[in-house]
């Protein structure tokens, strides 16, 4: 496969993905209130583009018409949801005692600084 064919294939795949997403996103926006299911932030107008569809089972091809596999998440909560899974997979099989732990709290003592002002 040469470079031109590869670029055409990638462009076609991106177009198909956009079409698939726009279909279930529009449907989800009709079914559910425009509120992030995690942080409960409300969205309207131009901000509505920050509201995404999360597939509960992580299968983007599982799109039942009743929306039972979807939840609306803001882009931040959606990113956190997928990052959380990556972190859990990374730590899977690691013994509890060998897991990294936070040794320093960057906000320790912050409350005391505000009391003095």
Helical content (DSSP H or I, runs of 4+): 40-55%
Integer average pLDDT: 82
Remind me, CATH topology?
A: His-Me finger endonuclease fold
The figure for the number of domains is 1
- SSE topology string: HEEHH
Structural class: mainly alpha
Outline type = extended
The major beta sheet can be summarized as: 2 strands, antiparallel
Which regions contain 5 or more consecutive residues with pLDDT less than 50? Answer: none
| Proportion of strand residues | 5-15%
Q: How is the quaternary structure best described?
A: single chain
Total number of helical segments? 3
Report how far apart the termini are: 67 Å
Strand arrangement across the biggest beta sheet? 1-2
The CATH architecture term is 3-Layer(aba) Sandwich
The Rg value, from CA coordinates, equals 21 Å
Q: Which CATH class is shown?
A: Alpha Beta
Number-wise, the strands total 2
């Amino acid at each position: 496969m040469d470079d031109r064919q590869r670029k055409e294939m990638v462009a076609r795949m991106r177009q198909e993905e956009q079409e698939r997403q726009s279909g279930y996103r529009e449907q989800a926006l009709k079914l559910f209130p425009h509120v992030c299911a995690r942080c409960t932030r409300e969205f309207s107008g131009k901000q509505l583009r920050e509201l995404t569809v999360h597939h509960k089972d992580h299968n983007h091809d599982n799109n039942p018409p009743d929306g039972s596999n979807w939840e609306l998440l803001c882009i931040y909560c959606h990113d956190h949801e997928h990052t959380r899974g990556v972190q859990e997979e990374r730590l899977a099989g690691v013994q509890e005692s060998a897991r990294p732990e936070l040794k320093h709290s960057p906000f320790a003592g912050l409350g005391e600084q505000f009391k003095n002002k």
